[in-house]
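Ticket opened by: R.M.
Priority: normal
Category: complex prediction / small molecule

The reporter submitted a protein together with pantoate and asked that the result be attached to this ticket for the collaborator who will pick it up next week. Submitted input follows.
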Amino acid sequence: MNLAELVDPPHAQGDVKLIRARDELRAALASVRGEGRSIGLVPTMGYLHEGHLSLLRAARAECEVVVMTLFVNPTQFGPGEDLDRYPRDEERDLRLAREAGADLVYAPPAEEVYPEGFSTKVEVAGELTGVLDGDPARRGPGHFGGVTTVVAKLFNSVQPDVAFFGQKDAQQVAVIRRMVRDLDFPVRIAVLPTVREADGLAMSSRNAYLDPRARQQATSLSRALRAAEETAPTAGLAAALDAARAELRVAGVEPEYLEARDAEELSEVAELGDRPVLIAVAAQIGGARLIDNVVI
Ligand code: PAF
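Result attached by the on-call engineer:
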């Protein structure tokens, strides 16, 4: 395949190339790399929304070739989670990816990523994967083991110069950054701000699960975080978390967690200091488990 066809002429007139086999992906990208062109990677599980599109646009602006991966990764779903009903619409994703600037979409079948006998795991140990969503009583560290294993594989297959992730998945970002640092992946991690609906709800593919009542309740997550953000500088973190809890209570939402942690290490913090603090919330609202966060 001549990848030059994908990137010249200008992208808006081009088409997106769909690749399912890793060998074909590698062959296509080898010529790109040989020409010294930079590669941006946007890993996704599909059902694209504005959050994904903002990552693709950022990749388009910064990199000469933009690869999006589209793979609903089974190993990051726990038993009883929503793997089977996770929303999927490949045709729509391809169209949106093309419009947002992707040159190439790698959408492998599960057997290509996890062939029979697959028995390797890439795991970041310790607090980064053991708290918040990684708490064994919640999704557990296995969730992040699934994420880092597949992201490590995608980094190896694509060998991007820059990989783009959304701040909404703040813990995922912290874990991936650590993996990249610890395992010397030659990739820069770019993190883009959370994209929100007009009423503040963070965009998520799982918002598709919300019925109208739950959709309304879900707006309390961003209100709670805003209340915390406004309260913290003058009244401190404990009062900030109280203010957030009060917003959730009014909406009838019981958080799975609402915590303040060091934004990089995810260690507990009692007060604002000179390092950024992550306030993270998760809640089951109607049929969707939603997460959101703010960094102050
Ligand atoms: O954030 C996601 O959509 C997924 O966790 C990722 C990074 C694509 C890995 O499957």
